Amino acid sequence: MSIIPVNSFALDRWVAPSGDTAKLRSAIDGRVVAEIGGRLDFAAMADHARNTGGPGLRAMTFHDRAFALKALAQYLNDRRDALYELSYETGATKPDSMIDIDGGIGTLFVYSSKARRELPDDQVFVDGALEQLSRGGNFVGQHVATPLRGVAVHINAFNFPVWGMLEKLAPTLIAGVPAIVKPASATAWVAEACFRMIVESGLLPEGAVQFIAGSTGDLLDRLTGQDVVSFTGSASTAGMLRANPRIIGQSVRFIAEQDSLNASILGPDAAPGTAEFDAFIKEVHREMTAKAGQKCTAIRRIFVPGAHRDATIEALSARLEKTVIGNPRDENVRMGALASLAQREDVLEKAGILATEARRVFGDPDAFQVEGADAGRGAFVPPMLFSCDDPDGAEKLHAVEAFGPVSTVMPYRDLGHALALAKRGAGSLVASVFTHDPTVARQAVLDAGAFHGRLYFANRDTGKEATGHGSPLPHMVHGGPGRAGGGEEMGGMRGVMHYMQRTAIQGSPDIIAGITNRHVAGASTVEKEPHPFRLTFGELTPGRTLWAGPRTVSLADIEHFAEFTGDNFYAHMDEDAAAANPFFPGRVAHGYLILSFAAGMFVEPAPGPVLANYGLDNLRFMKPVSPGDSLKVRLTVKQKTRRKDEYGEVRWDVGVYNQDGEQVAAYELLTMNAM
Ligand code: NAP
């Protein structure tokens, strides 16, 4: 294999490595596989992102960007094989690469789909409900969010060159913010190959993404309060970068995902012989060996009831014994190499530190079998399991991260003790508890939740469906307090908000409706022919209103409805019992009868652009309707959301009123309307 030049992509042009480049070596045999380095004009890159990428992205709606992300995910999905091939040289087995590559592509798919469901097909994100700020209703408030006007600088760790890049790009691009990606050098050739596909897809606007192969130079010194740094890596690098005077001085948002002494707790109820014990052993083994333990979420500390320590070590050792280590290209191999010889040295040094407080009970770095590769040349280490007698007295075990297949078993007395020990990690990305007892789970959340970004409960019920202690999911928050960096990534749309500014807007209902492109209470409405059910999705505008009715509700209607549906609840059928209820003056109409009469009043029956009733939201019955009351209904277009090329969702604000003009019911009706 010839040496791969790891190129940068700046100002929409590829820039080859130049000058005094660094050589990147294969994790399998130490051969030089790639070279990286060179100078870039970082000021011009930042300007290009801000002046070209930002405007291009902001011209699109959230849904436009989500559709682009989906197309991009499909594009990458069709080209995965080339990435697997490059990934072997980082020491990753095929299953390791699937976590990285398929996991990254999956994250794009999930973000695309969630954004289309949860964000408007618009450029302004409406955050929460309208706030009534005055008695008369002429002055109201609303929180909205809009994309930051700067650039997101993504600095990634070496362990997941593809997932690490895509999990940050997805929320950034959905937000409408351009990104400059800086992968870790050690595995940058894989990140570059994936980035090249992104560029070649042509799916993103000019300037939306740029790529730095090598140093970030003076880029961080050029950032402003409209920019974001999203960092993944070691605590020491994070500490150094966040102390940059420019980042402090300009209040540049700085999101950090750093190292973490993640714990797994075998619940007090999960004795050997239970499904929980078996699942625990399987999971700890998987976390130690997948990606050769180079996962920020990997289990470093294993807490078990003192009585089950020996059984735990025995069961884990039996599984580790069967784990074939070697050339990741070999299909029998279950654990490949660390990413580099430097990492190997680092892991062995850290394991040496742990050995001052714990005894190694499995794995000897000086005597282990390597299949299909030369152990002397590659970055191979065996899984190493330690056991500690005195976890309370230990310091290093709760503080030193050996970023490899290294973990320590520690005994606990009771659940409170286990949770106290887990908290000694001073803030982690994830802790898992294997228990079938909900009271154990609740105690874990109340006692230790504040110390962990994620708590993962597994048992016989979650079984094979459980996604794994170590798998950050795009739907769920990834990040943790304290030592883990204090950052929060993904978590669905929460992750998008890191790249947007929330602004409180205050004004009249018409002003708020105009800003948000949705009708709000008190804003102007338009009533005119034809009936809105005769208008296509494109022809309807927020505020378009229909008044229909009246319809008088008779006792016969109520009795007919009761008999027809079988709903003979006393409030509709028994005058004395109804009157004795604090809410009703006597027999009242069924709420569902009111809804049905409302539909009967506003529906325009002939075939037309309305394709389907899709449901109701926020239904409230506000006043009882008695026999003899006369109802009217108001139907107002609140908001429109494109769903497919052929149709979109229309959200109607519906109010039902009695003869005195009092509102008796409120809800939002959803219809699917043809374009
Ligand atoms: P690292 O040495 O801190 O490097 C992280 C990133 O920072 C790399 O891209 C690196 O680039 C860059 N960097 C280093 N110095 C820099 C500087 N002065 N200016 C700008 N960028 C700079 O960490 P790593 O060894 O790659 O990753 C391993 C660590 O990451 C482990 O501790 C692991 O726990 C943590 N990690 C955390 C998460 C998480 O989500 N919390 C995920 C994965 C890994 P170069 O490679 O070019 O030096």
Q: Quick one: CATH class of the largest domain?
A: Alpha Beta
- The number of E-state strands comes to 27
The major β-sheet equals:
7 strands, mixed
Oligomer: single chain
| Low-pLDDT regions | none
The averaged pLDDT comes out at: 96
Total separate domains = 3
Number of helical stretches of at least 4 residues: 19
For the record, the CATH architecture of the largest domain stands as 3-Layer(aba) Sandwich
> What fraction, in percent, of the residue positions are helical?
25-40%
**Strand arrangement across the biggest beta sheet:** 15-16-17-14-13-18-19
- CA radius of gyration is 30 Å
| CA-CA gap between termini | 53 Å
The structure class reads: alpha/beta
Using the alpha-carbon principal axes, give the shape. Answer: globular
Q: Approximately how much beta-strand content do the residues carry?
A: 15-25%
Ligands? NADP nicotinamide-adenine-dinucleotide phosphate
CATH-defined topology of the largest domain: Aldehyde Dehydrogenase, Chain A, domain 1
